[in-house]
User: Fold this.
Amino acid sequence: MKPYGSVGEMVDLSSNAALAIDEKLRVCAWNDCAERLLGYSPNEVIGRPCGDVIRAMRSHNVPLCVPDCEIGKCFQRHQPFDVGRCFVRHKEGRLVPVHIGSMIVGAGARSQSENDGLAIVFFTPRSGNVVAEKQPCLRVQTFGRFSVTYGDRILEIEKWQRKQALALLKCLITHSGRPVPREYLIDWLWPEVDEIVGVGRLKVVVYYLRQQFRDAGVEADVVDTVGKGYALRLESIWLDKDAFEGHVTQGFSHERQGRPLEAIKCFEMASALYRGDYLEEDPYAEWCMEERERLREVYLEALAHLADLLMNSGEHDKAVQVCRTALARESCRENFHRTLMKSLGQLGSTDQAVAQFYRCREILSRELDVEPTFETERVYQGILGAAAEGLL
Assistant:
């Protein structure tokens, strides 16, 4: 899949991780250094929108790769775009700190076979190739039971003497690297105290949290002081929720590009990471409620696409399993009832498909006081009709 010609050769010969993009801002060349840095093979990225691959952001989670982004506009104006300090996201979801440089490819340097080659983008790791290093990784699991590991060691966070240090860590994780003003943290952690007392307590807790990581052998700084607030250094941590969203994003991208098998794989990896709701041990904490609901919706949307892809690929057993997993969490989602009915019908389990319709109707009536939609009714009638004709 590697393109040939001058642009492809320039990318291949670069000593830095590099890619080339075309007039439509799609990746048209990808070198071995880029594969080592970000984990993608050329076959996985060629033809994809560049923003879907690199997912770059400035410090503290300010995205660079957004629809109609400034980088793309510069390239289309035939202007280079450089970023001195930012992050790109590895295939597994972790952030890699890099410098981004670029060059515009002149028309004379383009071959007939790649006349859309527009620009070459270079990535220089800020502190060595962090992907290739074999140092232990601080890993945080936020779905289901919260846990923190470093290398092969599980940190005994339940034994931390200052319980607010754990709450502070969760607050910072919830804000995904964005600085959190100290007044918000004080209000969440000690709503009953005034600001002067709160500032003193917060400093003690921040120091204690940093000390716990140092005692565990974590060499990288995890918590940054940013102005009058604090932020998590995302490049120092692997977060399951970041990896989860990375797989979902890749899945949607593959689906848009007409690659169902790759999309299924990505959605399945995302589903495997979702072991339970986000920070489910803190059900009443206001600072994580919105993020919990957002991630839950992302999860259910990914499952809906996964179930449809499996059904359309003839993997009806797997589609049934995915639908039942989703309905165990959200029993009123009619789309899962419909896909489950269709897949059961295709498996020859007509009685179960019919029973599922009545179960759907009973749940909707009890929980929402509504009847199934016309679309669900039509699926049900279709199953009955096919059974009567001996097609199921």
User: Anything to note?
Assistant: DSSP finds 15 helices and twelve strands in the chain.
